[in-house]
Amino acid sequence: MTTDLGNYDAQAELLSALRNDEELATLSKGGFHNLVAKQDAPFPRIVYSQLNNRPTVYADGEEVRATVNFQVSIFTDSESIIHEKAMIKAVDRIMKSLEYGKYDHQPLFETDTKLYHVALRYEKNFYGDDE
């Protein structure tokens, strides 16, 4: 059976894991958003983006490995920044449970919006199976 690894719905898996984590759901007062948060969503909030989902290894013309990358961003304002570390730890724990490895962590301050933004990037390899 051919597995279309490049089209695996990793995004649905991630959103489900984020939403179903009680600690993170409680901390993320503004919720979870794909690509862009709603303008009026309170802080702190999480924005996730799938950066990549592509086949990376082929054998005998079949996909045998796909690589998926996500950025999970935590946005806080001056009042909610106290929750930032706990949210980073929760996201790291969730991503580890999904077998993603972190490869980047960028703390940023957005001067135009006066928001704190931590961009966390993760990667996972999915392997096909012979069923």
From TrEMBL:
Pfam families with a match to the protein in the record: Tail_completion_gp17
Name of the molecule in the record: DUF3168 domain-containing protein
Taxonomic lineage: Bacteria, Bacillati, Bacillota, Bacilli, Bacillales
